[in-house]
Amino acid sequence: MSRMEPPLTRPDPQMARLDPSASRLKYRIERLMLTPVFRFALRVGLPFALCFGGASAWVSVEENRQAFNLMVADLRASVESRPEFQVKMMAIDGASAELSEAIRALLPIGFPISSFDLDLPAMQAQVVALNPVKSAELRIRQGGVLQIDVVERVPAVLWRRADGLFRLDESGVLVGAAAARAAHPALPVIAGAGAEQAVDEALALYAVTGPIRGRLRGFERMGGRRWDVVLNRGQRLMLPETGAVRALERAIAMDQAVDMLARDLLVVDLRLPRRPTIRMSEKATQEMWRIKAIEAGGD
Amino acid sequence: MIELYESQRAMRNMRRAAMQRGVIAVLDVGSSKIACLVLRFDGSEPLEDGIGSLAGQSGFRVIGAATTRSRGVRFGEIHSMSETERAIRTAVQAAQKMAGIRVDHVIACFSGAGPRSYGLDGTVDVMGMTVDEQDVARVLSECEVPDFGHGREVLHAQPVNFALDHRSGLIDPRGQIGNELSTDMHMLTVDAQAIQNLAHCVKRCDLELAGLASSAYVSGISALVEDEQELGAACIDMGGGATGVSIFIKKHMIYADAVRMGGDHVTSDISMGLQVPMATAERIKTFYGGVVATGMDDREMIETGGETGDWEHDRRTVSRAELIGIMRPRVEEILEEVRARLDAAGFDHLPSQQIVLTGGASQIPGLDGLASKILGQQVRLGRPLRVHGLPQAATGPGFASCVGLCLFAAHPQDEWWDFEIPSDRLSGRGFKRAVQWFRDNW
């Protein structure tokens, strides 16, 4: 575009004052500034592009990136290492002494440690995985204490197995090994295949054995479906699959009525509820036959 | 006439594009001032029949207006391209700034360039039972175009009347039953050079030309009221360098012409007569000018002023009667010339002979009295219509053509090139003809 040629006549100075005129460049710039798209680009696009470009250029240098990462890491470390976030000790509530020891051995934490470094859900999973622990709650208490609230499993029965004696809780979950029967006199003993799956039944039976508790040795699971009550002197009450508690109550009532269990019998078979059957010992049988013979008037 | 179609149709398409964008500028390139208005269209097109509310000008609003002293325009024609371009730029820039929006399309008008009117007529047999678009197109192309000479361009070509058999005065003959369709058309030609210059100036301002109009025509649109346009009236647009004459009847312009004299000539007479600079002469004309002297005017002394340093020269006074004595002959001359043009056009045969004076130079006090002596009894001073958002400063008679151009931009008269091209003139456009055939038969 050619430059504007000067006017051929000398401009009147008085009129030139009244004669504002825009230069071509100014006119174009003003039109550009009045273009909505251009204004939007200038107001939004340009700052964005500048910021983005500057940031990209800065980040594209490897050293800057490293310095930035280092700075972030430093900042993070400085925040994490503040005394407010330090954990100085572990407190275990609701656990016996040996369980506490076991938990401490399980979570080898070098105190003091930042609370950001503790993975509480994982630790909780670890603690709960311990046999004697029913549930556990881990939190960081004020004052920098890692508080572990443990609910221990309460042993409800002793479980006799070929390889030893174990404690089970009322749902049949293993609590731990038992040193000896005598160490837990209050707990009933169960045995037999599948006994640990029917601990609740055993406990229900145990609850009604009050009158014969002195003679009770334990409960044996027979064939994984029914219980035998084992008494001392080798006596055994065979209970049915269903209505075992009722059958046991009847046997106890019979015992109280006719002093049944004090007699020389080996097995009281209650598996058919309408027909309790007893099996006497060999000697008693011989004796009964002798008495019967006498009654019959023989010899 | 195909090439004429092309350029005018291109401008019409440009106007449509501007309408879609909703913003268009109108530019009055006058000899004494260049005015630019920026219009915003709300898109509320008027109803199909009638002209809608507010005389059909409710669809737009003036959002920017600017005026600048004209440079490089003489007798309504561009005289110095770069100067004019600068003036257009100044006006457009100021109007844009006021509007707060960029305009890309501009509709311009100018007064000079020797407009010449032609009355055309054409007759054609209706092809089918009823008159359809093709018949209208054919009758328009059937009009015998006079030899308007080399280097001239058609500015307006408006069908003003349709006649079917013996019924004349039809506005829209489509759908009517008849045998012979004839039309009367008014064609206005101007110097091609002037149009090219203006187009070039507008283009150099990074603007698109969306239409061109004669300023005599557009000031007639705005200054004549509806019944004057209907019954017959002449609008005398007295500008700075040229005085436009347009005659309207039945809401159509039937004649336009321009006298190459205007207010600037009065100013230069004063300047020469009183030996003062043009600026002072202009000031004296606007403050004290008149055409009818009274006894009081002999006593009213006007200081002409001056800055030569010569006390005698700078302290000259002139009586108002002397000023009027300088102005009146020139104004009379202009009006006589207008009278001659009106007589040549046969204005005295019109049923109503209302004459409306408008334009900046019509503000001379007493002009209506003088004009009624020369032009006829029914003379009034006209001001442009009020349009939405027009600033108070732009409501004077000097803005008649500006306002008229707004109305023209909003609702242009159907011109020749707005009608379809008759299919038999579309040589070598087989596909278009096939499309046309399909459209006609289905």
Q: Low-confidence stretches of chain A at least 5 residues in length (pLDDT < 50)?
A: 1-7
The beta-strand count of chain B equals: 18
Number of helices of chain A: 9
Mean pLDDT of chain A: 81
How helical, in percent, are the residues of chain B? 25-40%
Task: Quote the beta fraction of chain B.
Answer: 25-35%
The mean pLDDT of chain B is: 85
How are the strands of the largest sheet of chain B arranged? 3-2-1-6-11
How many strands, what sense, and barrel or not for the largest sheet of chain B?
Answer: 5 strands, mixed
Domain SHS2 (chain B): 24-223
Function (chain B): Cell division protein that is involved in the assembly of the Z ring. May serve as a membrane anchor for the Z ring.
GO cellular component, one term (chain B): cell division site
GO biological process, one term (chain B): FtsZ-dependent cytokinesis
Can you lay out the helices and strands and say which pair or pack?
The complex is a heterodimer of chains A (299) and B (442).
Chain A: H1 13-17, H2 24-33, H3 36-59, H4 62-80, E1 86-87, E2 89-93, H5 97-106, E3 113-114, H6 120-128, E4 133-141, E5 145-152, E6 155-161, E7 164-169, E8 174-177, E9 189-191, H7 199-207, E10 216-222, E11 226-231, E12 236-238, H8 244-258, E13 265-269, E14 277-280, H9 282-295
Parallel strand pairs in A: 2-5, 6-9, 9-10, 12-13
Antiparallel strand pairs in A: 1-3, 4-5, 6-7, 7-8, 10-11, 11-12, 13-14
Chain B: H1 2-21, E1 23-29, E2 33-41, E3 60-69, E4 73-74, E5 77-78, H2 81-99, E6 105-110, E7 116-125, H3 133-142, E8 152-164, E9 167-170, E10 180-191, H4 192-204, E11 208-214, H5 215-223, H6 226-231, E12 233-238, E13 243-249, E14 252-259, H7 263-274, H8 278-288, H9 295-299, E15 301-303, H10 311-314, E16 317-319, H11 320-345, E17 354-358, H12 367-375, E18 379-381, H13 400-410, H14 430-441
Parallel strand pairs in B: 1-6, 6-11, 12-17, 17-18
Antiparallel strand pairs in B: 1-2, 2-3, 4-5, 7-10, 8-9, 8-10, 12-13, 13-14, 15-16
Helix pairs in contact in B: 2-4, 5-13, 7-8, 7-11, 11-12
Domain SHS2 (chain B): 24-223
Membrane topology (chain B): Peripheral membrane protein
Function (chain B): Cell division protein that is involved in the assembly of the Z ring. May serve as a membrane anchor for the Z ring.
